[in-house]
Amino acid sequence: xxxxxxIFLLFSFSIISLVLLQRYDSKPINxxxxxxxxxxxxxxxxxxxxxxxxxxILNEPYIVKCTLRIDExxxxxxxxxxxxxxxxxxxxxxxxxxxxxxxxxxxxxEFNFTFKPREDSxxxxxxxxxxxxxxxxxxxxxxxxxxxxWGLYFFEYFDIYEYAYxxxxxxxxxxxxxxxxxxxxxxxxxxxxxxxxxxKDIEVKIISSYIFEILGNDxxxxxxxxxxxxxxxxxxxKPKYSEGNKVNIYITYSAETGYRYYKSYYKxxxxxxxxxxxxxxxxxxxxSEGDEIxxxxxxxxxxxxxxxxxxxxxxxxxxxxxxxxxxxxxxxYQLSLNKAGKWRIKAYFKGSSEYLESTSNEIIVTVKEKxxxxxxxxxxxxxxxxIFFAFVLVKxxxxxxxxxxxxxxxxxxxxxxxxxxxxxxxxxxISPLVAFFISQYVYNVIAIEFMLFIxxxxxxxxxxxxxxx
Length: 469
Known about the structure:
Blueprint: H1 2-21, E1 28-37, E2 44-53, E3 55-57, E4 62-72, E5 76-88, E6 92-102, E7 108-115, E8 129-143, E9 149-163, E10 169-174, E11 178-180, E12 185-193, E13 199-207, E14 212-214, E15 219-225, E16 230-239, E17 245-255, E18 260-272, E19 277-278, E20 281-282, E21 286-288, E22 292-300, E23 306-312, E24 318-324, E25 330-336, E26 341-349, E27 358-359, E28 363-368, H2 376-396, H3 398-426, H4 432-467
Helix pairs in contact: 2-3, 3-4
């Protein structure tokens, strides 16, 4: 049992070693070719012996030993051999120029045909393929009786096999599996030649896509990677959108014998959104009821986007105002606060297809209750008016006093019309936007006060005229 196990392990080790070394054992063979021709009175005969391996390894020189022997001269003065040529397959031909006369039976000529390693073969390495060798001899024999040249035309072929060692190439990839949009990263391809034969004409190309922008080279080319060598190719990529996608790598190389390999790889890389930030500030920390503040800030990175201003009043009620940033990411909003207490304000960006959401710091604006002081000018005017009314009543009677009272009221309406006109039109103490919406209301108030002014003024004039009768 132990002996069988040992034999099995030895056999397995031999097979594995053969695969790892990528060797194929061939065996030597001999091929004998004889050919007779020439004079009718006595034929000439030659023999050609080829010593070669039955399998041609394309990675190595292929040597065929040839022995030319004169078996018979017959009725001939000599045999002249111009050349002998061997051809493997179609087009791979080696010719040995002999250019010699053989005058004795038993003359021998030995020489070698050497075929160079193939570098342009289309056969796939690692597999056995059938091929053939053809032999072609050119010469003649000179007849003794007539000096006639008997031409030698000899052609034969036989089968052999061809084999090429399979390249042992390892391809590794180094890249981050998770990147951030707009942040460049490196994608590296490593090619290791672990075999005993070189690989050549290497081309490493990365295919562009709408997700990844190629910042530098999109293709590298190398002539040769020798056994044991490692080559690295680094590409710089920049994600343009935040969504997962595949990077397509296209690699081609040729075996030492010429067969070309084409390989395509897809590597998945997830692209996450980039961070954003937003600030919020107010031009005043403390105001009175009804006053306005300007809320402003900046969105980073700079871009045109819609943001929300979240406003919480002193009672906890939340309001949202929508504003838009400019190309620099800046925004500004004018806000009127009409309730005493602490107002909390912050800005919020909901994010986009490339950027994450962000919230600003919260600012606090204190609104103080507005204290209304009485109009001293109106009080003084009314006191003086009452004194003047009493004086006229005592000295001139009721009708003139009532006339004076109508003039006083008419004057009050006139003063208020002038105040409203100056407040909303001349000095512009309210914003143009607010003035646009309340302009009609203001003009209606002025129109009513003007009518009351006319009424009281006319009544006063009539009472004054009646008191003089």
